[in-house]
Design goal:
The protein has 23 helices and 23 strands. The chain has a 7-stranded mixed β-sheet with strand order 6-9-10-12-11-13-14, with helices on both faces. A 4-stranded antiparallel β-sheet has the order 16-22-19-20. It has a 3-stranded antiparallel β-sheet with strand order 1-5-4. α11 runs parallel beside α17 and α19 runs antiparallel to α23. The longest helix is centred in the last third of the chain and has 37 residues. It is globular, with a radius of gyration of 30 Å. It starts with a strand and ends in a 15-residue tail after the last helix.
Length: 614
């Protein structure tokens, strides 16, 4: 029976994108010789399948791809059609504990071996007895392990196979699992290498558990995965870090948090990942009272709103992170809002450890520590934009200013170029008005809010945007914003902030989380807008000064296959312009401080032109 691959499998094995494989199929000539891509041998549920051996020979012949070991990696990607992921994991767990290939064993012999390696039926014996494996399935598991660098690597390769893709578990993103694992490891080390008790999605186990001693989980699948990874388990431990990802219904989250808090022995730590809507954001009525009741115990040391995109089930929703410490009441809570921020995981971990230490002298990279009673009474618990106060720029002398400027002006700058071709012959798309887009619900208009200038301060962290070109950004403290402007709508990433007065002007907020100063307003484009935010902003900025009422503004309609490419190009152009402006400012600063510095004797210019002798 032939073993088949999908085009996605081919891309993974060859180390290229799926689009690259499609391009290979369209180009039957390689290095001037006709070398067509192998023809499909089957189509299952609308997906084309190709003979694995033919594809590997074609890759070897053409030299396509970036992976010279594709033939060795391919077996892990090509399970027999009709295989079940849980069966493969169970068989791999058994194979990792015996020294014989499964294909040479009869099903009843497999069951006896499973009972031998799992005499108390903690993870394996029942599952193996229930499987009626085909010879092809047993051969696949043997080949999977043989083509891998051990059982743990075999499990990683299985995660890249179409079996795992078909399961399509929508748990934590890779970044979320890595962050959760780093926090768990740091907390365990803080306790003196304590054990881990884990309740996280299966695809996050490796990142969270690493080489830790694990309190044996209740979940049998998790036990099998940990056995394959080689983690040691124990029934109990003196100091434990409880790690849980609570990704279910919001109604269940606080009940689960209370259960975990009740299980924490003195000196243990709880690390909980759950919806920010429950752990960090504003709650109403009974839900708000429930959270205050949970916090009344006094064991929360850190509450962090994480960047969007870490929850695959709802990538536009943020997750929240709580860290609990049992045995001693906390007197401060670290609060941090990481929405829209580029984060360094090591710095997040340092902030969490600082929160566990409860030191009054600790400086935080991402958050701010508030007295426990004040923080616990807050609603929202983590105000939007919560971060350390921004430090004012340090004063430097003329010499330091010149040196800093030359670091900018001396760096090489690549040119900006792009390739354009004649468009395909088709009818031009007619523009539409912004009002029409609002009416058709391809865009939304959201009013800005009046902001009292006396509430702003230059070192605060919540941005207050205005689309008026001459208006500087304001900044407001997140606690002040929560107290006075809870009614105000905030931007989301890729929102466009627009004004009609004194002339039409627009700017894109790529980060989100900002307040918007009235009369500026937000335009939020939908998926059917036929234009991206940067192209929309540019179209507004090209309008004449007397463009009239905003509803009548003309908005271009782009071809669907051009929207993303145009956006990417405009972002690159803006990045280039921003860098040019930065260098222009640095050059002006260099000239100013050079003249003044030489005049007052603070610096002297060293000539780089060699002098002639004589």
């Amino acid at each position: 029976m032939e073993t088949t691959m999908t085009l996605r499998d081919v891309a993974i094995a060859a180390g290229v994108t799926r689009q690259a494989v499609t391009n290979w199929r369209r180009r039957p000539t390689v290095h001037g010789a006709p070398t067509p891509f192998p023809a499909p041998v089957a189509s299952l549920r609308g997906v084309e399948h190709f003979d694995r051996d033919e594809v590997m020979r074609w890759l070897s012949l053409t030299g396509r791809g970036t992976n010279d070991q594709a033939a060795l990696d391919a077996p892990a990607l090509t399970p027999p059609d009709g295989s079940v992921l849980d069966d493969v994991v169970a068989l791999l767990a058994l194979r990792s504990r015996i020294d014989r290939d499964l294909a040479e064993l009869a099903p009843d012999h497999l069951a006896r071996l499973a009972r031998h390696v799992d005499p108390q039926d903690r993870m394996l014996a029942t599952e193996i007895a229930a499987i009626d494996p085909s010879p092809e399935l047993l051969g696949y598991v043997d080949e999977l392990l043989a083509a891998s660098f051990g059982p743990s690597d075999a499990l990683d390769r299985l995660a890249s196979s179409r079996l795992s893709r078909q399961r399509a578990e929508r748990g934590l993103s890779e970044d979320a699992a890595t962050l959760l694992g780093a926090v768990a490891t740091a907390c365990r080390q803080h306790l003196g290498d304590g054990a881990l008790a884990v309740d996280v999605p299966h695809d996050a186990l490796q990142a969270v558990c690493r080489d830790a001693l694990i309190v044996e989980p209740r979940d049998r699948t998790a036990r099998r995965l940990l056995a394959i990874r080689g983690n040691d388990t124990t029934s109990s431990a003196e100091s434990v870090v409880h790690v849980a990802a609570i990704l279910g219904q919001d109604d269940d989250v606080l009940d689960r948090v209370d259960d975990i808090a009740d299980e924490l022995a003195s000196g243990s730590v709880g690390v909980i990942l759950g919806p920010s809507s429950v752990l960090c954001d504003r709650l109403r009525g009974h839900d708000a009272e429930r959270r205050r009741s949970t916090l009344a115990v006094g064991n929360l040391v850190a509450a962090v709103r994480l960047p969007r995109g870490m929850w695959r089930h709802a990538h536009r929703q943020a997750l929240g992170l709580w860290v609990l410490r049992a045995g001693k009441s906390a007197h401060r809570i670290l609060l941090a809002d990481l929405t829209g921020r580029e984060i360094e995981i090591d710095d997040v971990v340092d902030d969490v450890i600082g929160a566990l230490e409860q030191s009054d002298r600790r400086q935080y990279r991402y958050g701010r520590a508030l007295p426990y009673d004040r923080a616990a009474a807050g609603d929202p618990l983590v105000p939007a934009g919560m971060a350390p106060a921004r430090l004012p720029g340090a004063a430097t002398g003329h010499r330091g200013a010149v040196t800093a400027a030359t670091l900018v002006t001396s760096a090489p700058l690549d040119g900006f170029d792009l390739l354009v071709t004649p468009a395909e012959a088709e009818l031009a798309t007619a523009p539409r008005s912004l009002g029409q887009m609002i009416d058709e619900r391809t865009a939304r208009r959201i009013n800005g809010s009046r902001i009292d200038a006396t509430h702003t301060e230059p070192t605060a962290t919540v941005r207050v945007m205005s689309a008026v070109a001459t208006d500087p950004d304001w900044f407001i403290d997140p606690l002040v914003a929560a107290q006075h402007y809870d009614h105000a709508r905030r931007t989301e990433p890729s929102d466009v902030v627009v004004t009609a007065t004194p002339r039409p002007h627009a700017v894109v907020d790529d980060i989100g989380g900002s307040l918007v100063r009235y009369p500026s307003f937000i335009v939020r484009l939908g998926e059917r807008a036929a234009i991206g935010p940067h192209a929309f902003a540019e179209s507004v900025n090209q309008l004449p000064d007397q463009a009239g009422e905003w509803r009548a503004w003309s908005v271009p309609r782009l071809a669907p296959n051009q929207v993303e490419d145009v956006e990417a190009t405009l972002v690159a152009a803006e990045t280039y312009l921003r860098e040019l402006r930065r260098r222009e400012v640095a050059a002006h600063e260099l000239v100013r401080h050079l003249v003044q510095g030489v005049a007052v004797g603070d610096l002297a210019l060293v000539s780089t032109t060699p002098r002639k002798a004589g």
